[in-house]
Amino acid sequence: MEVIVYNSKGVDTGKKVTLPEEVFGIEPNQHAIYLDVKQYLANQRQGTHKSKERAEVSRSTRKLKKQKGTGGARAGSAKSPVFVGGGTVFGPRPRDYSFKLNKKVKALARQSAYAVKAKAEKISVIDSITLEAPRTKDYIQFLNDLNLTGRKTLLILPDVNTNVVLSSRNVQKAKVTTASQVNTYDLMNADQLLISEEALSTIQSLFEK
Questions:
Q1: What is the pTM of this model?
Q2: Which residue stretches belong to region Disordered (predicted)?
Q3: Of 136, 175, 172, 168, the residue nearest 154 (C-alpha)
Q4: Residues 6+ apart with CB under 8 A from 122
């Protein structure tokens, strides 16, 4: 699959690059994508939820009323879950939501995510992007030139570029990452992938291992 290469001003450079077939041309595995996204979201959960159960509520333990003769159900403690302010029955407890996922499944998920975006023609290749200083307005202008204002974008670079990262940090719906650090969730969450021309070879080499 061939795509046009644009410069940082959004102008067609006249060049075309062929996306690696072994990454962008495979048949997407939707279940692998689901598992990888599920693991990513699960790992974001703190798992610090907690409610007090009967043994943890600070209330009197005296018997509220006599056992018999009241015409109502017996009641032994104000901590009982049937009373307002009593303990919670089977309430949430702190737990770890993370789970293991094989490396090959995660790699297949990323490949599948790339393939999904390629089939939907949601990939743009940029020859290079360099910013002299970290300025948010420069990155906004970069997106404006590509007609991507207001859309979720993911810029994939071959290496960390501090000026680009800092310039994009306060731009809503914009994220910058590197080819080796990108994850399936970010790929699927973006409306448009912006891939540096140099990053394409890095992406290809990662899946050749």
A1: 0.84
A2: 45-78
A3: 175
A4: 190, 191, 192, 193
**Chain-centre distance for alpha carbon 78:** 45
| 59-111 confidence digits (pLDDT tens) | 988 999 999 999 999 998 999 999 999 999 999 999 999 999 999 999 999 99
DSSP 8-state assignment for residue 80? S
- Cα 125 to Cα 146: distance, rounded to the nearest angstrom: 11
Task: For residue 155, give the nearest of 8, 4, 3 by alpha carbon.
Answer: 8
CATH of domain 2-27+97-206: 3.40.1370.10
| Beta strands at 12-18 and 2-6: parallel, antiparallel or unpaired | antiparallel
CA angle centred on 85, ends 83 and 87, rounded to 5°: 80
d(Cα 183, Cα 193) in Å, to the nearest integer?
13
Whole-angstrom distance, CA of residue 119 vs CA of residue 108: 16
Distances (CA, A) of 93 to 41, 88, 159, 204: 19, 11, 41, 44
Q: What are the percentages of helix, strand and coil residues in the chain, rounded to 5?
A: 35, 15, 50
